Structures are given as C-alpha cells and as structure tokens.
Amino acid sequence: MNKTDSMKTEGTQNGTFQVVDATVMGWILCFGSFLIISTNLLVAISLVLLIRKQGCRSWCFVLNLALADILVGFAITVIASDGIHPRTSPIRQTDCLLRMAFVTCPTAASILTMFLISLDRYVAIKLPLRYSRVSGRWPTGGSLLLLWLLSLLVGFLPCLVRRMQ
Q1: Buried b (16+ CB within 10 A) or exposed e, 116-136
Q2: What's the pLDDT at 4?
Q3: What confidence tier does 14 reach under pLDDT thresholds 50, 70, 90?
Q4: Rounded distance, CA 129 to CA 135, Å?
Q5: Residue 96: other Cβ atoms inside 10 A
Q6: With 60 as the cut, is the pLDDT of residue 118 above it?
Q7: pTM for this structure?
Q8: What are phi and psi of 106, to 5 degrees?
C-alpha cells in the first residue's frame, strides 16, 4: 500500500465519521426540537386558559414568546432532517435563504418578545397607577403586530435585498 492509498482510506474513514456525526447531531436536534415544541405547546395552552379566565394583558407577551419558540422548534426540525437524511446534491441558494429566514424570523420575534416582557414589567413597576390605561388591548396588540413585522423584516431581508445575499 503506497502513500496515496493510505490517504484515500483515511479520507473515507473521516468522511464516514463526519456522516455519522451529522446523523447523531440530526437526532439530537430532532429530540431538542420535539422538547421545544411540546413544552411550549403546554405553556401556550395554559396561557390561553389563563388569559380567558383572568383577562390579563401581560400574559399575551408570554403567550407570544411561547408561539415564537414553537416556530423556532419547527425550523430546527427542518435543519435536523438534513442531518438525519444527508443530501447528495448541494442546497440551492433560494432554499438556503428561506431556511435562514425561517430560523431568523421567529428567533428575532422571541428576543423582541423578551424585550417587550421586560418593558411591560418595568412600566407596571414604575407607573402602577397608570399601568391599566397604558396596557390596554390596542397597545398590546399593536406592539405585538409591530414586533412581528420587525422580525419578518429582519428574517426575510436577505431574501429581499440582493446585496445581503
């Protein structure tokens, strides 16, 4: 066996290890996304029941966080499926951009929702007498609408602007 044959064998072995590692990582991501989706579904159901019962607007932000995290879990599931079933052909640029957008958009929404939760708690502590007027149905809904529009813009901007690709 000469030097090039031993290099081919090592390359094959390394390639096999990389496929096995990608498959294991795919299963780990799949399990993690299952936990993310199932846990946040339970949280979302509990929050819907709580909001119906008490009508507190602050819980709408936490519900939005749970829904954004469910979408993150679904996006991770798509990535995990590539790890479990590796592609033989390279991924197209548009598919890659869309996958990136579907991961970035709910992640940005989740981060911005945590900001809104902290802002809501700050206003509740700093302005306790005016909080019920400030945190009505329209300000809560408007802030959530603005949050999702901003996260959609952040997530899908590389798909829309050619120079960001």
Answers
A1: bbeebeebeeeeeeeeeeebe
A2: 45
A3: low
A4: 11
A5: 13
A6: yes
A7: 0.81
A8: -70, -25
